[in-house]
Each structure stands twice: as structure tokens, then as C-alpha cells.
Amino acid sequence: MANSISNTTIVMPGERVTSIEDLAKSKRVILGPGLRRLDDTVVASKAGPLRHKDPNTFWVDNYQRRYVPARGDLVLGLVKAKAGDLYRVDIGSADTASISFLAFEAATKKNRPDLNPGDLIYARVLNASADIEPELVCVNSNGKRGKLGVLSDGFFFKCSLNLGRVLLRENCPALTALTRQLPYEIAVGVNGRIWLKARSMRETMALSNSILSLEQTNYSQIDRICGDLGEVLQE
Amino acid sequence: MFMNSNLFEPGKSKLERNFIQSAAKQNTRLDGRKSGDFRDVKLTFGADWGTVIVAIGDTKVLAQVSCDIGTPSSARPNEGTLHLNVSLGGVAYLNESQTTHDQRFLTLNSLLERTFRNSRSLDLESLCVAAEQHVWCVRVDITVLNHDGNLYDASTVAALAALMHFRRPDVTFLDEEIRIYSDKERELIPLLFLHYPVSVTYCLYKSNSHYPYVDPILLEENAADSIIVLSFNSYNELCSLNAGGSTPTKAGIIMQCARNAAKRSKSLVDFLKKALLLDEQRRNNKEPIMEGLVSLLTNKSQTISYNHLMKEDVSDIVMREKQEIPEKVKTEDKPVAVDAEPHKKPSKATPAPINDSAWLPRDKEASPTVVTSSAPTKTNRNKSQRGAGQQKSTQKHSKQQNQSDSEEETKPVIK
């Protein structure tokens, strides 16, 4: 957490966070994931270290593997089935997401995208609400696909949501360190799924193993792990 | 729609399947093992008799044995009963649909039934208290805590370890009255075994049907085209074979699997026996035992590791052999290197002759493709056990037996 104060207060669900309440008396505060306002009190709804970003943002950085969809998230999904003019896509949330036949670049009623159950797609969450199933799209507002769409070849694996978020952070040290070792393509979904493709299968395997080993590490260990990878591949 | 129906299991997507298939073509595995390498097996015994947790890599299984007095079946009035029960609730998150769950449950249950019950591994007659009236009913509850492939081996090892660890109270039957003694009054009695079976799992891919992967992880298992599960006892007798799937497999490959599986089963049983001895020593020394399941899962201090325990053993024998016949040891094998990696040593040496041929017809094709070369150090150990194996082997194989005997006699000459 480079840009947050490194106070390691651990909060548990249901715990009152009085430090935020005190601050809220003098100025406006923003409560992020894992914190809730109940009348005049601030209560944690998830367990984990309390994080703070200046000037007034708070959130709980909890360890989680279950994805809760949110609008605008980039996710990796597996096509489960065709259903009328929709595809059912598994994105690891409580409910399967759906994506329309027309939500692909240059797709028309006649020209349908060729997707089959078991395919992996990189998509954006269009709308997400607790009561209706999430909807995905593979185009931006201009109708261009950009980086979204079907991912073929390569390897795909699941990890915790935290690791996904760590990799997605701007100038993530892990990905920079890995880039120094070898070229590769990567697609990280905030739903804790990662797609990888390197030049050879061996490299892809090495990369996926080193990324998975980042799960329990701190920033100081990342460089060491990435260095190890280079040594292994040079053998 | 089911709550958990939205999760794809690892290995079920097209991408993963293709990747694993191409990896199989190059004979590489995701975790860096060779096709014939096993993961480490770890055992932790609980405070109660017959409680054990077995971990193979990330796969974790808890087995608990209990017993009580019941009535025998009318078909077998002088035998106790053995009931095996598997609970897959711990990995319910994996099950994509109800059918996957049922299928997994059924295969596992039938494997256990065939391995332990149908092969009559337990001496059930010794569990009889009074014929047609009272017998001991032994029950094995297997709870799957985590699934990372090879649930088959984990649950058979767990069941066997728990049964071997279990002790039942003593009982007397006088004047139509049963009296069960508590452990304070009389010592508890271990169960009697006729043989010790464990299973070994292989998975095969269409892209490469020559190198079956042993001890697959979940990804490999789910992406596999066929899975072969073989149960062997320590006498090299086949107890159950489960081979399905769609890979065209040569008989030679299955034979080769069987040969390696028999060897593995034997060393697994050896390991279990050693681990039980170690546990008994700890109990006799009044070392603190772990109370409760949580400490059983989290406390690693009393975990017994296969690689660790058997490594000592192998290096022990290697050292002893060196002292006996120092001229035979290759000069490039420094003693330090042997200590550090005793498992590597056999693979460097010339592939040792397979001496399980007593019960298996050998075909010429299979021998050059043997993946795991057996340790030359093991050869001597196996020979001493051969007598038992031969006595037990069926008459059907008597021809092969003779053939292999002559083969073995010639071997020293070839060496």
C-alpha cells in the first residue's frame, strides 16, 4: 500500500470504527468497500486491515475469493451455454452473467459471434445489481472491441480477488519485474481470474506459477521471486 | 438454478484442456514434476484411535473410524461388518452441478468398497462376538476437506491408515450378557488385517498416451481423457482396477502402470507401518497429543511426511550398501549428493530390472518405456518379500512365474 498510511488496524465485521466517526465530524469522508454507515456510526462489514488514503477515503482490504460484480469492472468469464439471443457466462459471482449476441464488435442479427461453451472471454460489466443478473459487453461505447473479446490459446487460472487487484494497480511492481524477464501477454480480471500467454508453454507455466506464488508475498519479496523465475528459465 | 452451479471447475474450460493436452505432448507438468513423480504424502494422527488426516499436496482428507456392537447379516452370521462412508460436503464449492457431485461420490465410494470390502482386507471373522447375535460393526467416515486432484489415493490411504491406527475395546460374552471393557480395565485391541491395499491413480491424454501422469492435480485430473485407478496390496496383488475414459491405451501401458503402482503401494504401506510405529512411540513417551480437529489441521509439528520418512530409509540403505560393496558404487556419486537427493540417484543409475514380473505377463514393448526406474537399492528388499508374493499369486500365472524366475537368475550375469 504505497499511497496509504500504513496503519494496521484490523477490523472485524460489526465493529464500530470510531476513528472515522471523529474525522467525519469535521469534514466529509468517503467510505469504501467493507465499511458502512449506520445512522451516525461507521461499522465495518468485512474483516481485514483498515486502509486510509489521504485526504478522506477509507476501506477494508479483506481477503476474498468470491467476486461481487460492480459496474465497469473488467472480468474474465467462461461461456457456459447459449440461451436464446444470450450467452450465459460464468464470472465467479453468485449468479451467472449474461452477454448478448449483439454485444460484440461488428455483430449483427445475421452475423453472430462464434462462441461455444468452455470459451474464455474478456468483458466489461455493463450493469450489476443485487437483484438482477449481471450483464456483460465486449465493446466500448463506440462499438469497438479494444482489448475485449474471446481469448484463445494461452493458459487461464484462478486466484484471490486481492491478487487480481494487486496486479491491476498502476505500475504494479510484479508485472514490471516479470516484464524484465520475458515477454508475455496477460489479461487480469478483477474477479480473480488471469489469462496468460508467453512464447512457449514452458514460459507460460513458469509465469503462472510465479504469479500464483505472489499470493502470500509482500512487495519486498516480489523482486526476489521474479528474479528466481529468470534463473529457472535460463537453465 | 443451484447456488453453486456457476463455478467452472479448474480443467473444465476449453483453454485449460488444450493447454494441458499440449503440455502432455511435451511430457511436462504444471508443477514441475515428471510424469512418474508423486507428491509428498503427509499423515497426522489425532488424539483418538483411528483418526487421521492425510494430505497429498493440497488434497486433504480426514478419516475417522468408529465401532459399535450390532447384529450380523443372516448371510454371514459369524462376521463383523465394515461400512465405508464418504462425505464430499467440504468440496461442495467445486461441484458444477448435482450430477458431478453424485458421480464423484459414487466413484469414490465404489473404489473404497472394492479396495477394502470386496478384497476382504480386514479379518471380519475376528470381529465376531457371538455368532448370529453380536458382532462389531466398524465404520469408516471419510471427510474430504480439500480437493486438489487424486482424491482416490488420498481417501484409500486415509482409510487404511485410520483402520490400522484404530483400536477397539475388549469384550466378553458370558451367560447371554455382553460386557465391554473400557480402556482402563483392559487394553484396547487393534483390528486384524489380511492384507493392506492402497490405490495409485494415473491419468492419460489423447495427445500422449505413452506417459501416464501419476498422482494428478485437479487441473490434470479434470482435463484428462482417461483415468486409471489401481489398488494393490503389499503382496503385489491387484485389489481393484478402474480404467475408463476415451484414450486409446495399449495394454503395455496399463501393465507398466500396474507394475509401478504395485511398487508404490508397497512403499506406501511400508510408510504407513513406520508412521504408526512413530505414533506409538510418541504415545508411549507421553508426548502432548493434539486434542480437537482444529489443532489437528493447524498444528504441523506431528505431521509425518512420506518423503522425509522414506528418504531416511533409502539413504540408510544406500549407505549400508556402500559399506558392503564399495567397489560397485559409481565414482560420480559422491556421498554428499546421495544424502541430499537419494531419490535422484536411482534415476541416474541404469534402470533396474523390474522384479514384480512374478505376477505380471511381461511384453517386450513395455520394458523400454518404463518411466520410473526402480531403485536398485529396493531390489534387495523386494526379493525378501517375493516369497510371500509368489505363494499368494494365482496358479494362472505359474508359467510366467517360472519364466520370470529364470529371467531373474540371468540378471546378475547381465549386470
UniProtKB/TrEMBL annotation, chain A:
- Give the record's GO biological process terms: CUT catabolic process; exonucleolytic trimming to generate mature 3'-end of 5.8S rRNA from tricistronic rRNA transcript (SSU-rRNA, 5.8S rRNA, LSU-rRNA); larval lymph gland hemopoiesis; mushroom body development; nuclear polyadenylation-dependent rRNA catabolic process; poly(A)-dependent snoRNA 3'-end processing; regulation of embryonic development; regulation of gene expression
The record ties this protein, via Gene3D superfamilies, to: 2.40.50.100, K Homology domain, type 1, Nucleic acid-binding proteins
Record's keyword annotation contains Oxidoreductase: no
User: Exosome complex exonuclease Rrp40 N-terminal domain: which residues?
Assistant: 29-66
What are the subcellular locations of this protein? Cytoplasm; Nucleus, Nucleolus
All residue ranges annotated as the K Homology domain in the record:
154-200
**GO terms for MF:** RNA binding
Q: Which GO terms describe its cellular component?
A: cytoplasmic exosome (RNase complex); nuclear exosome (RNase complex); nucleolus
Q: Which domain of life is it from?
A: Eukaryota
Record's signal peptide? none
Q: What is this protein called?
A: Exosome complex component RRP40
The protein's organism comes out as: Drosophila willistoni
Traced from the root, the source organism's taxonomic lineage reads: Eukaryota, Metazoa, Ecdysozoa, Arthropoda, Hexapoda
From TrEMBL, chain B:
Q: Where in the cell is it found?
A: Cytoplasm; Nucleus
Its encoding gene is what? Dwil\GK14785
Mind telling me which CDD domains this protein's record contains? RNase_PH_RRP45
Q: Which family does it belong to?
A: Belongs to the RNase PH family.
Which PANTHER family does the record match to this protein? EXOSOME COMPLEX COMPONENT RRP45 (PTHR11097:SF14), EXOSOME COMPLEX EXONUCLEASE RIBOSOMAL RNA PROCESSING PROTEIN (PTHR11097)
Q: Name one Pfam family in it.
A: RNase_PH
Example GO biological process: U5 snRNA 3'-end processing
| Entry keyword annotation includes Cytoplasm | yes
What is the taxonomic lineage of the source species? Eukaryota, Metazoa, Ecdysozoa, Arthropoda, Hexapoda
What's the protein here called?
Exosome complex component RRP45
Which ranges form a coiled coil? none
Q: Which GO terms describe its molecular function?
A: mRNA 3'-UTR AU-rich region binding
Regions of biased composition (Basic and acidic residues) lie at 325-344
**Which GO terms of the cellular component aspect does the record hold?**
cytoplasmic exosome (RNase complex); nuclear exosome (RNase complex)
Q: Which organism is it from?
A: Drosophila willistoni
Name the InterPro entries on file. Answer: ExoRNase_PH_dom1, ExoRNase_PH_dom2_sf, Exosome_comp_Rrp42_subfam, PNPase/RNase_PH_dom_sf, Ribosomal_Su5_D2-typ_SF, Rrp45
Superkingdom as given in the UniProt entry = Eukaryota
> Domain Exoribonuclease phosphorolytic, which positions?
37-169
Report keywords, A-Z.
Answer: Cytoplasm, RNA-binding
Q: Where is the composition biased (Polar residues)?
A: 369-379
Q: Where is this region: Disordered?
A: 325-415
